[in-house]
Amino acid sequence: MLLRSPVSRPRFTLALACFSLALPAVSLAAPAAKFDVLELTIEDAHNAFKSKRLTARQLTQAYLDRIAAYDQKGPLVNCIVSVNPQALADADKIDAEFARTGKLIGPMHGVPVLVKDEIDVAGMATTQGTVVFKDYVTPLDSFPVAKLRAAGAIIFAKTTLSEFAGGDTYSALTGYSRNPYALDRTVGGSSGGSGGALAANFGLIAIGEETSSSLKRPAAWGALAGMRPTPGLISRSGMWDGHPVPTAQMGPMTRTVADLAKMMDVMVGYDAEDPITAFGVMHTPKSYTSYLDKNALKGARIGVIREAIGGGSRPDSPDFKKVDAVFQKALGELKAAGAVLVDIVIPDLKALQAKRASDPARTEEALKVYLSRNPNSQFKNQDDINKHPAMATSFKTMVAKYRAENPASAATGGVGYTGSGRAGGARPPADPARLLESQRAREQLLMNMAKVMADAKVTALAYKAVEHQPTLIQEATTPPYKSNGGVVSLNTFLIHTPTITVPMGFDADGIPAGLAFLGLPFSDAELIKLAYAYEQATKHRKPPASVPAL
Description:
Elements: H1 8-22, H2 42-50, H3 56-70, E1 80-83, H4 87-101, E2 112-116, H5 143-150, E3 154-159, E4 170-171, E5 175-176, E6 178-179, E7 182-186, H6 192-199, E8 205-210, H7 216-221, E9 225-228, E10 249-254, H8 257-267, E11 301-304, H9 318-336, E12 340-343, H10 349-353, H11 360-372, H12 382-386, H13 396-405, H14 407-412, H15 432-456, E13 460-464, H16 473-476, H17 490-494, E14 499-506, E15 512-518, H18 524-538
């Protein structure tokens, strides 16, 4: 049974109302319907701009038309929280500048960008997926958003996420977002709105974020490319889980690896507000796009993790077997493209990962840093958030779901890892001994992995980005609340290891699955090279039938 978002229709109506107020001030361009934006790439858009077959306004309007047709109508994808009321005006400015100079403003000229709604965009609410933050508006862009804007991008819309970015994309604010490839299933999370909206061609590119597996899952289940880069490459200022928490990272989500590389070129860079970016200064190539080599798999040695390593994975279940069948086919495709595959086993992988622990004190510090960036914030700290009347009801369903899935958390009275321990009322303080044990486990596992890779002479590891099919919405919204099955969070436990996800095909039910490549710290460019070569050899990406061209 499909569930309609309880507040999505008025939310969407208000967004379009903002546009209707702005439209009389500018001249309307010719209808964008003459130009097919389905599966459009940055290169496609720029070629169309240069040949005067398309304007930035027409492109922006075309995506608005698709949102109007499919987000709250028809398939009810429900992946958009709000549309930027300045988007068309920004597009007009870009068109005017292009008409004046005949040159593109920058590498993101006229590109409409979707932004996960835990990342700040000036003048727009950053809801964190909760009623508690529905009126939280900041005057500042996050650092990566500002960089994209300076490169000519149009910051177009904010996308849904789970409540306080924990788990599948469900919240009391927006309801459940639907996977456009299987409307009775979730888009994953917590960057599910970015994944679902991009898969449905509601924008050209998107920004996601990952603390556990929040970017890989939506990318895999949306037939997308997605990357959680090495911490230190992309700033987190203007995002909740930023400095000093090292785990959460923003990353690009795209329909092609080439567009992902172009996003990386723009988004990386040192930011004094996020000191971890100092580590990236000496590890950033001149251009990630220079690594796009369709022949890169020839002779490449890749380690293969065949065992089930995802949380809650059930290897005997039918849907696990369906995803595994796609993975086995993908391994054959890697070989056919010239890769040398080496089966590897990382010692104590599961046992060491099981020692993962959150650090509420550090998360609280990161929250204060985030809130202090907004001079208009009605919140100063976690206590202010917990006092909000909506906390008693809005967050209740999410807590109940998480505790049903994680009995150990319920036993201690904590919300556990959900949302990085962001919200949910009083929690017991972190156990210093457990945090130390977790840190040592992380160091040991990274060493074990590096040694195995060195011994096998492999440059990257390959595994299933997610080991199960997307959760059925009906099962995710009723006890015992099934979700997060097959979540692979190896990279985020290790913190400093980058991963990239690329489409590896569709299972027997027609649902996308993703192939993940993981590397050692700052091997991001090499991962992009491998992912691009695999993508070019297979061309697995296909748009969902539920949201056809208009």
